[in-house]
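REQUEST ID: PR-0412
SUBMITTED BY: lab tech R.K.
PRIORITY: routine
TASK: structure prediction, single protein chain
INPUT:
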Amino acid sequence: MGRTDDAKALARDHFGKGWVGIASYYIFHWRRAILVLGILVTLLLGGSATRLEVQAGFAKMLPLTHPYMRTFLKYQGDFGGANKILVSVRARKGDMFNAMALERLKAVHDELFFTPGVDRSSVLSLYSPNTIFMEVVEDGFRAGPVLPSNFKASPKGFEELRANLSKSQWMGRLVANDFSAAMVSASLLDRDPKTAERLDLRRVGVDLEKIRARHEDSLFAVDIIGFAKSTSDIASGASGVIFFFAIAAAITALLLLWYSGSWKLTVLALLVASTPVVWLLGLLPLLGLELDPMSILVPFLIFSIGVSHAVQMTNAWKLETQRGTDGVSAARIAFVKLFIPGASALLANAIGFLAIAFVQIEMVRELVMTATLGVTLMIVTNKLLLPVLLSYLRLAPGKARAPREGGSRTIRLWRGLSIVTTPRVAAAVIAIGFALLAAGLWKARDQVIGDLGRGVPELRPESRYNRDVQEISSRYSIGVDVLQVIAQADAAAACTRYEVLDSIDRFEFLMRQTEGVRSVRGLAGFAKLATVGYSEGDVKWAAIPDTREQRNQAVMFSTRGGGDLVNRDCSAMNVSIFTGDHQAGTLAGVVAAVKRFKEAFDTPGLTFQLASGNAGIMATTNEAVADADKWVNWALFCAVALLCLVTFRSVAITLCIVLPLGLVTVLCYALMAALGIGMKVNTLPVVALGVGVGVDYGIYLFEVIRHEMRSRGATLRDAFLEALRQRGSASLFTAVTMTAGVATWIFSDLRFQADMGILLAFMFIANAFGAIFLAPAFAACLLRRDPLRTPKGSG
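STATUS: complete
OUTPUT:
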């Protein structure tokens, strides 16, 4: 009886302290109303969540504030945007010179032409009227369609078609070099022509798959690539996150049941951890937001963070019930003890998300908004609703056993670990930490900004999309990655000036010598080819003509035979640089070569402007990520340090929490370099997420350490032992649970989800060990002069 009275007195003592104690009184006084309100909000937002759509837009992926994007947006109407679709009809045996193959190509051309969202004026294939050839004849030039309108599928007709192709500029572009395949290309509109809404790329991808299904068989294969198709495939793979969500929830439930020993606590923790996810998904449609395929993993992360904080709260409640406190008083004490450290930890999570906002890309901004909103909602669900629900919980006598923190084996383990706070052991641990830091910094030098490997790195190498990329890139000359540089003149009709064509010719020559470039198409090259044609095919005349009349003829020839090389008023010329791949090193080398040329040859009358084309967009994104990367880390660590400083009012404690996070961040960069994972839009948030979640462990542990040293005059070792007893098992448990949950992503169909799973699993578990081993070792050195200890009773 005396033990219960002591517990109640302790409860009253807690309730009277500060604004948190006052808030606890009103919260539990109105607990029934709060519970009813929480249930109603969950039901309403659950209904709203059914209207949520997963969509991706091309413009959302662009760093629109980057200088290159001004060039892209200005000239995309003249030279086409980067959002293109390439559909290749490939004969499984033989070539395309047969009636069935051309019928199949014509059917694909017609279906792509009428696909909603396709810019019909951009559809190009052998059946397009502007697919022409030119040849030099005795009386001048002869031109005509590569595939004549009166074409007949006969040996003579196919012989004529082959001859026309050899005289055109379409070999390797619309027809494979070995004649085994033929291409249909098209650009996509930004808006749906029927609804005027942003074009739904997932629907476009579904329509393209329907075209493939209708025309692919044992005789012909249909290979499809393009941003819309890759995005659609990524979105389809991302839908599998529901499966991994279920697996993670099952793993979490089993571990929770083992840890708590109570199915009631397990169900309650899972229920409250799921509530912010429901609220988040329900609020997004009301705020006019959508869920992007790249951010579809955010709800799972919110659930994982929710489990982490729910475990801390239920653990604190159960510890109080073991001391004889009734359920309501135990819930109040748990609320008072954990609200400040828990809310601080969640604010640190929110700061981790907000730090990513330095990336000037709409998709990233939406991810930041979604994640920050989810973490903010968690403060209400985990720190308000969960204690209220716990106040109604009653455990059966058989379940009221001591929590696992109190087990003899666990206590012995914690006593053994507490030795890390002794000077010699602390010095050894810190030395190991610095050794890891040095190794991490050395390996992190190999980290690159951008993609590594061929194809779309978000998908597995064996995915159908990446196999299509390999097929098209191996059969056509132009490659699938193009970086467009615009030669911008100061006046109309400048494209016929000698100095303009000469500068473009020099630029084309330099680009052809650049490593990673497969081919170059530009006005100067076509003008020289036209000059050869006008000179009866004599290659000695492959030069820019001296007279304006000859240059006018050459440019006229080029615009008819070469396609999108100049704009309407002849003031801007497009140079297309086809790269062998879009790996970070390749794009960086090409962009660097363009910048060197600009620096040496740009004049007031002619400037070379980066960049357009899909490879140009990738290069722009890489630069945007590189610029934001350093600011993300600085903002993240400064904000987390400031939050810890405000929470603990101690520079020493702040350093003890932040320094291990810095080490783990460096090791994460080293791991990315070792695994060949580039730093890009998809992986940049990982470090911020890992730091935001990892700071939880340090905040929870040092909240107890500070309380024990200040209020009870405990030594650092005794205070750390008490912190491990109260929060250690919960911290390790949540780290293992979250690690196990994200580790299942390794088996995802999406490569970027698997990469995120590896990196997050590493950061979750490494940050937990950093808080348990390295943070107290730093404390042994830094807290000696920190004014934590005060006489007993003075606090």
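NOTES: Residues 594 and 600 are 10 Å apart (CA to CA).
REVIEWED BY: pending
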